[in-house]
Amino acid sequence: MKKCELCHKVARMYCESDEASLCWDCDFRVHTANFLVAKHTRTLLCHACQSPTPWSGSGPKLGPTVSVCEACINGGRDRGHRTVTAEDDNEENSDLALDDDDDDSENQVVPLSLPPSLASSTSSCRNESSFTTSDLSKPTTSYDVSESGEEKSSAKKMRSWMWR
């Protein structure tokens, strides 16, 4: 069994950038140190044999996950007995070349910007301001609430209700 490089518990993932096998707790401590180390891609180790699995991820905290390698899925038949041919080497090298392009596009930083204002929203604002100006020129009606006791008392109730 592979042990965690820091605390010697059972290792659950491998960080290629750090070249270290880590348990969940130590991975969390190491990869939350700053935003640069949080970008390290880590590969989950097989729960049964601790060989690397196809699962990989990055980020400050990767939640505990159980993964099994392809050899263990096949019942251990392929465990360590696979022979590498020249065709396999070529396929792996071509995959690596393609993966480099994908990594660059995933890590692009895009500045946050507000969308440009639309012409229709600008024209509606102009219409609103001219509408408001024309309304202000009209005479307004005012009501004197103090003349009648009923209206005055209801106004007091309203005021006290609004202040509560």
From TrEMBL:
<feature type="compositionally biased region" description="Acidic residues">
    <location>
        <begin position="86"/>
        <end position="106"/>
    </location>
</feature>
<feature type="compositionally biased region" description="Low complexity">
    <location>
        <begin position="111"/>
        <end position="124"/>
    </location>
</feature>
<feature type="compositionally biased region" description="Polar residues">
    <location>
        <begin position="125"/>
        <end position="145"/>
    </location>
</feature>
<protein>
    <submittedName>
        <fullName>B-box zinc finger protein 21-like</fullName>
    </submittedName>
</protein>
<feature type="compositionally biased region" description="Basic residues">
    <location>
        <begin position="155"/>
        <end position="164"/>
    </location>
</feature>
<dbReference type="InterPro" id="IPR049808">
    <property type="entry name" value="CONSTANS-like_Bbox1"/>
</dbReference>
<keyword id="KW-0862">Zinc</keyword>
<dbReference type="GO" id="GO:0008270">
    <property type="term" value="F:zinc ion binding"/>
</dbReference>
<feature type="region of interest" description="Disordered">
    <location>
        <begin position="76"/>
        <end position="164"/>
    </location>
</feature>
<keyword id="KW-0479">Metal-binding</keyword>
<dbReference type="Pfam" id="PF00643">
    <property type="entry name" value="zf-B_box"/>
</dbReference>
<keyword id="KW-0863">Zinc-finger</keyword>
<dbReference type="InterPro" id="IPR000315">
    <property type="entry name" value="Znf_B-box"/>
</dbReference>
<feature type="domain" description="B box-type">
    <location>
        <begin position="1"/>
        <end position="45"/>
    </location>
</feature>
